[in-house]
Amino acid sequence: MSEPVKVCVTGAAGQIAYSLLYSIAKGDVFGPNTPITLTLLDILPMEQVLGGVVMELMDCAFPLLKKVIPTCDEKVAFTDIDAAFLVGAMPRREGMERKDLLGANVKIFESQGKALDQYAKKTVKVVVVGNPANTNALICSKYAPSIPKENFSCLTRLDQNRAQAQIASRLGIANSDVSKVIIWGNHSSTQFPDVRHAVALVNGKKVPVPEAVKDDSYLKNEFLKTVQTRGAAVIKARKLSSAMSAAKATADHMRDWWFGTEGDNWVSMGVFSTGAYGVPEGVMYSFPVRIKNKQWTIVEGLEINDFAREKMDLTAKELIEEKTMADEVCKA
Ligand SMILES: NC(=O)C1=CN([C@@H]2O[C@H](COP(=O)(O)OP(=O)(O)OC[C@H]3O[C@@H](n4cnc5c(N)ncnc54)[C@H](O)[C@@H]3O)[C@@H](O)[C@H]2O)C=CC1
Ligand SMILES: O=C(O)CCC(=O)C(=O)O
């Protein structure tokens, strides 16, 4: 067996972590032969709950799990880690937009950015889940200048999975028979779920999704709205935000970053924009990426029509506004 991968999960006493820790410890993310040591960060009032999570992890008797360290200290949580799942943040409640969380959550990511900068390996891979995820990831990276910007990302895989599942259900095919769905932009209700380049396997044949669905109006309206507002719909129904699906998507995100994407397939990740597809530089924007040797590259050359351009610009505008607000919060 190889050396253990050192993994930190923040918000470890919360609801997403409850599912995510199971997946990580079982080997779904770093592979079935990779031992893991876990540091679990949460805040002091959650210390007792965190203790319960540690007991349960122990009682699972996972073969790969070598050590579990619960802590409320960022130094202990981040020292020498290889991968960070930054989940810990306040979730929104009914009636709120995710950016309403900026005031409360952005400071967490300023502090954790500084701590990652000081204590984590420079090769650490960071996925930010806590909302507003794109802007939190941007702030975290800003305050960790010694770690390459490419090592920071935010979760839009849940939106990708939602879009994929909607199309599969519409076509009556398996989820795995839909690929190359793209999420552009912010993990918010302005995101642009784009299936113009997506492919469906129908009766053994690969067909472009728009051709298979045969309903442009559905794809431009109902489908878009359903994916954009899925988080709010779950909150309305559960009175709690998505957790199982968020954990599954987080595990998918890091697994693909760790092991790479297959063939010419791509996945969506929020990453630092350097201007691809006319997206403004300096925001964390979700793009289609291919991954090799733990490095992502944005898929080039996809055609952007007027409809897509408008949607992509709208979500970029929101991210620029969030960035300004976040910088103000950090200055205060
Ligand atoms: N990007 C995405 O696709 C998704 C993002 N989310 C977001 O993930 C975040 C967590 O959601 P849940 O687990 O449902 O919330 P939760 O409230 O169940 O758990 C959050 C945990 O974070 C902890 N926490 C708060 N401040 C912290 C700090 N400074 N350091 C470490 N831990 C801290 C809390 O004590 C709590 O245990 C929320 O912001 C939610 O909106 C949720 C679903 C999907
Ligand atoms: O919608 C929210 O604010 C919480 C969970 C979330 O981000 C989602 O379900 O997409």
Task: Explain the overall architecture.
The chain is of the alpha/beta class. It has helices at residues 15-26, 47-60, 74-78, 102-119, 133-142, 157-171, 209-213, 216-220, 222-228, 230-238, 244-259, 306-331, and strands spanning 5-10, 36-41, 65-71, 83-86, 125-128, 152-154, 178-179, 182-184, 192-194, 199-202, 205-208, 267-272, 284-292, 295-298. It contains 12 helices and 14 strands. The strands form 4 sheets. Strands 3-2-1-4-5-6 form a 6-stranded parallel sheet. The mean pLDDT is 96. It binds 1,4-dihydronicotinamide adenine dinucleotide and 2-oxoglutaric acid (AKG). 2-oxoglutaric acid is lined by residues 91-92, 98, 131, 158, 231-232, 234-235, 241-242. 1,4-dihydronicotinamide adenine dinucleotide is lined by residues 10-11, 13-17, 41-43, 46, 87-92, 108, 129-131, 133, 155, 158, 187, 241-243, 246.
